[in-house]
Amino acid sequence: MNYRQLGNTELKVSEVSFGTWAIGGDWGTNRDEDGIKGLALAMEQGVNFFDTADVYGSGHAEELLAKATKGKADSIHIATKFCRFGDIHDPENYTEQKVREYCEQSLKRLQRERIDLYQIHCPPIEIMRDGSIFAVLDKLKQEGKIRHYGVSVETIEEGLLCMKSPGVKALQVIFNLFRQQPAELLLPQAQANGVGILVRLPLASGLLTGKFKENSTFQANDHRNFNANGEQFNVGETFAGLPFVKGVELARELEWIADGRGNMARASMRWILDHPAVTCVIPGFKNEAQVEDNLSTLNVPSFAPEEMDRLSSFYQNQVAPFIRGGV
């Protein structure tokens, strides 16, 4: 395993880490036993960082992490997120009393005394402009409830705004072959400011595995069904904001990236890790096989400059015009 510094913090985290949305819920049916086994395998292979949120399975993902990482609080770092249990547009949702309540509930579910990275979970830009939420998080940090804090953002504008607050040590962003825009300004700025970058949705909700066909379907409790067009939350969180059928068509044009790299998923994450501003990718998983496959990204050769140029042109000319949900 390779490790990278999380911005200018003291934390060093595994280049390939894992998100727990899929094992918590909203990605179709899954078994807790498979999730626990996947977490155990990841840790055996050197993964020391996991991302979760209080709303993943209404706290279930945090509880699974607690079970899998029991007794490992010093060596396994956990990032969780808050705010989406309430009305994200209501300023009362970000008061010290409310945030403290969210924090204590997560600590209880995680069975930990401190959260390594506490992130605001895609709040409206007005909340970030106001900035009072950061004073609340500074207080929790001083009390030792959290080690560091950051923000999960939807757009480049939000990320740039958050970096103006000195306490923000990490940004969680959507960045993949179908969402390349952050590479132009956000990533260089983050690197210059010592802000870590956690990349969620590295495979665009599975599109970049190349396994889907235009007629593929998803279970009723899978967000790729119920949020395909942004019905429940920002459409950018599902298929990177692409209409599904268009995404399948575009993924087919990227099949060449798998040559010499095992498969499209590994190649897609290798492309992300080839950007030095990136701290880690946090793909989801449901079982040991998916964990193993994602970790194989570490053995994949990097992209040559001409390949990077080809992929950049592909994004600008064929992908960008179809992206929804803001970038």
TrEMBL record:
Extent of the signal sequence: none
Pfam families for the chain: Aldo_ket_red
TM region positions: none
Domain of life: Bacteria
Organism: Paenibacillus monticola
SUPFAM superfamilies: NAD(P)-linked oxidoreductase (SSF51430)
Name of the molecule in the record: Aldo/keto reductase
Coiled coil: none
GO MF terms held by the record: oxidoreductase activity
UniProt xrefs under InterPro entries: AKR, AKR2_Oxidoreductase, NAD(P)_OxRdtase_dom_sf, NADP_OxRdtase_dom
Domain NADP-dependent oxidoreductase: 16-314
